[in-house]
Design goal:
By secondary structure, this protein is of the alpha/beta class. The chain has one domain: 2-Layer Sandwich (Nucleotidyltransferase, domain 5), CATH 3.30.420.10. The chain has helices spanning 50-58, 68-77, 83-86, 92-100, 106-114, 122-130, 134-161; strands at residues 4-11, 30-37, 41-46, 62-65, 89-91, 163-168, 171-176. The strands form two sheets. Strands 3-2-1-4-5 form a five-stranded mixed β-sheet, with helices on both faces. Strands 6-7 form a two-stranded antiparallel ribbon. α5 packs across α7 and α6 packs antiparallel against α7. The protein is globular, with a radius of gyration of 16 Å.
């Protein structure tokens, strides 16, 4: 059986706050990452854990992300070599974009497929983290955890039922997937 781990990261800065914007994702800074795997369940990682996180991700056969190749791994690349991770990442956004010809949002995919949504947004998470308020910073961790949970459940649905749903032109579109377990 293939060992796999799910990942989502939140950042300290927005694209508008770093020189080069979206072309300089490595400068966004890691605030928190959340992983989930069958063995350890949910775990949270902070900036000081980034190199250990990269090592942990490398120990798995597959990394499952949503926009991980373009975003999450670029954030982590500021803290260590993530090249080995790129080749073993199942990036759900990338796969769906290839199938659909357009990008979808995790929020929209989760609502259409699972009937539930996210608990905030990326800009919210940056503002909460920056506040320095421990309660709001905990909210960032919970927001990130919810994204990982949604991703895990979407992948499980796709594997079990062979499809996910994506909003398109005002109605939900069935997208057949073959995401190996």
């Amino acid at each position: 059986m293939v060992s796999e781990i799910y990942l989502d990261v939140e950042t300290q800065r927005l694209s508008s706050e770093v020189p080069g914007g979206w072309n300089n994702i490595r400068a966004f800074g890691l605030s928190v990452a959340v992983t989930w795997d069958d063995r350890a369940g949910f775990r949270e990682w902070h900036e000081s854990d980034a190199s250990r996180l990269i090592e942990e991700l490398a120990a798995f056969d597959r990394l499952v992300t949503f926009n991980g190749v373009r975003f999450d791994l670029e954030v982590l690349a500021a803290y260590g070599n993530v090249q080995v991770l790129r080749g073993k990442t199942l990036d759900i956004l990338r796969d769906l974009e290839r199938r659909l010809g357009f990008r979808t949002k995790l929020q929209d995919l989760a609502r259409a497929t699972l009937g539930k949504g996210k608990t905030g947004s990326g800009p919210d998470a940056v503002a909460w983290w920056r506040s320095g308020d421990p309660v709001l910073q905990r909210r960032v961790v919970e927001y990130c955890r919810m994204d990982v949970e949604l991703l895990r459940d979407i992948v499980a649905h796709g594997r079990r039922d062979g499809f996910v749903k994506v909003p398109s032109s005002g109605k939900d579109r069935t997208v057949y997937v073959a995401w190996e377990a």
